[in-house]
Design a protein that fits this description.
Layout lengths: L5 H16 L5 H7 L6 H14 L2 E3 L6 E3 L1 H11 L6 E3 L2 H11 L2 E6 L5 E7 L3 E6 L3 E5 L2 H8 L6 H11 L2 H12 L2 E5 L1 H7 L5 H4 L4 H5 L3 E2 L8 E10 L2 E10 L4 H11 L1
Parallel strand pairs: 3-10
Antiparallel strand pairs: 1-2, 4-8, 4-11, 5-6, 6-7, 9-10, 10-11
């Protein structure tokens, strides 16, 4: 068994206290809460060390400590698991949960689709048939030839290529198609607090998933102090993907545990 150092025990306790109460904690209060007996005088020594490291900070000179945003980033990287998809069977419960935790949440269809066929309608339109959907474009012979070389490609990869080569009509049609697959979207007001510029539009769109890359995203995609979380879910019986975003100081473990308990 790996022995946890006093430094790590104290830091973990500060994080847990702040997630529970959302208020700074002092050495005496932390001493009374910890399951391991560590004197308040020793805790004060570690407060100083952790402050010097940049792991915790004081909002006021005489106040208690809180974890820094970088500490919370590291915490979520080790405390969130994405091994198993969540099952969501009650959208009203999820809506209330997102509001209570002040988390932006979007769920959208994640069905894998490939480009199966391209139809030329009298040199007026091109119809792109995918596994279960279709997209219509204005006819362009060069585009028709280009797309015929991409048969069998996935919808997501086609969206990337359309952006890279400047096929704006196709890119916009794919975005429109993906927007029709949004099953759930709640707490958009959180998005406006996270982004003070036009970037807020990105996260309201399912294509934001490609920008995230991994299951967790921090700065520079988000401003400091915010986090994006992506994971597979089963929403009302359908395979889907969920994106959550909000403050790094929100208790996402508790949020996801509530969802699991309700399944």
């Amino acid at each position: 068994m790996i022995k946890t150092s006093k430094r790590d025990l104290i830091l973990q306790s500060i994080i847990k206290a702040y997630l529970n109460d959302n208020s700074p904690i002092g050495s005496s209060e932390l001493c009374s809460r910890m399951s391991v007996a560590i004197p308040a005088s020793t805790i004060r020594v570690y407060f100083k060390k952790l402050s010097d490291e940049g792991a915790i900070t004081q909002l006021h000179i005489s106040g208690g400590r809180i974890p820094t945003a970088s500490t919370m980033n590291a915490y979520w990287q080790t405390h969130l698991s994405f091994d198993k998809g969540l099952e969501i069977s009650d959208e009203y419960f999820l809506k209330e949960l997102a509001r209570d935790f002040e988390i932006y949440c979007m769920i959208y269809g994640n069905k894998y689709q490939i480009l199966e066929e391209i139809l030329n309608l009298n040199d007026r339109f091109l119809v792109l048939n995918f596994s279960s959907d279709e997209i219509a474009l204005k006819f362009d012979r060069r585009v028709e030839k280009f797309l015929n070389n991409l048969l069998g490609i996935s919808l997501d990869r086609l969206e990337e290529i359309a952006s890279q080569v400047g096929l704006n009509e196709l890119k916009n049609r794919i975005k429109e198609l993906k927007r029709t697959k949004i099953y759930f979207q709640e707490n958009e007001k959180i998005v406006f607090s996270m982004f003070k510029d036009e970037r807020f539009k990105m996260i309201l769109d399912p294509g934001f998933e490609r920008l995230m890359g991994s299951n967790l995203a921090f700065s520079p995609l988000f401003d400091d102090g915010y986090i994006g979380i992506k994971q597979d879910v089963k929403y009302l019986g359908d395979e889907a993907k969920m994106i959550c975003a909000g403050s790094v100081y929100t208790d996402y473990e508790k949020f996801f545990n509530y969802i699991k308990d309700a399944a």
